[in-house]
Design goal:
heterodimer; A: mainly beta; seven-stranded mixed sheet; B: mainly beta
Chain lengths: 121, 107
């Protein structure tokens, strides 16, 4: 059974840092691209970041570029999101999502349960 | 960046109704369009990928169509468990933007 379990969320002051983790199981993690998606309270979904299966191709939303870093450890079946210089507008539930590809189309077929990050003084 | 515009933003419908949600892209993107369902407090769930392919395990009352800039998600006969928020998402180019969502409520 595919499982994605996020951890590391919590309350942090503006300007602070936090590192989210996503533990993957039930599939060959090193073969899959992974993404982070977030959702501010009462708002819609916002794509945050993408990493290729080997970690060499990385993309970010403009809203987090230069502050967030996505990474992965395929030996540990884990995905990470290092978040620095956090702002109030980064407050959201953060989801990790597995990417499948069909006819060249990426789509997110499995999602974690989410980890809440609250940025507040 | 490709902007995704969903309409309507919300709708009220009854069990058994046929429901249609549209998603328009700011530029042509072939069939690089996915649909997700989200219920309160839960993670999104994939319904449709590549514009019209039904994800395994998703009921056949859900269908997707469209290509280029205009896409549609149709629920042929709305069931009680379908009351949720629906999002489209493009994966043609990064950022892989989502639409603003369509909330389907009980009439």
């Amino acid at each position: 059974e595919v499982q994605l379990v996020e951890s590391g969320g919590g309350l942090v002051q503006p300007g602070g840092s936090l590192r989210l983790s996503c533990a993957a199981s039930g599939f060959p993690f090193s073969s899959y691209k992974m993404n982070w998606v977030r959702q501010a309270p009462g708002k819609g979904l916002e794509w945050v970041s993408h990493i290729s299966s080997g970690g060499s191709n990385i993309y970010y939303a403009d809203s987090v570029k230069g502050r967030f870093t996505i990474s992965r450890d395929n030996a540990k079946n884990s995905l990470y999101l290092q978040m620095n210089s956090l702002r109030a507008e980064d407050t959201a539930v953060y989801y990790c999502a597995r990417v499948r590809v069909d006819r060249g189309v990426d789509y997110f077929d499995y999602w974690g349960q989410g980890s809440l990050v609250t940025v507040s003084s | 960046d490709i902007q995704m515009t969903q309409s309507p933003s919300s709708l009220s419908a009854s069990v058994g109704d046929r429901v249609t949600i549209t998603c328009r892209a700011s530029q042509s993107m072939s069939s690089y369009l996915n649909w997700y369902q989200q219920k309160p407090g839960k993670a999104p769930k994939l319904l449709i990928y590549a514009a019209s392919s039904l994800q395994s395990g998703v009921p056949s009352r859900f269908s997707g169509s469209g290509s280029g800039t205009d896409f549609t998600l149709t629920i042929s006969s709305l069931q009680p468990e379908d009351f949720a928020t629906y999002y489209c998402q493009q994966s043609y180019s990064t950022p892989h933007t989502f639409g603003g969502g369509t909330r389907v409520e009980i009439k």
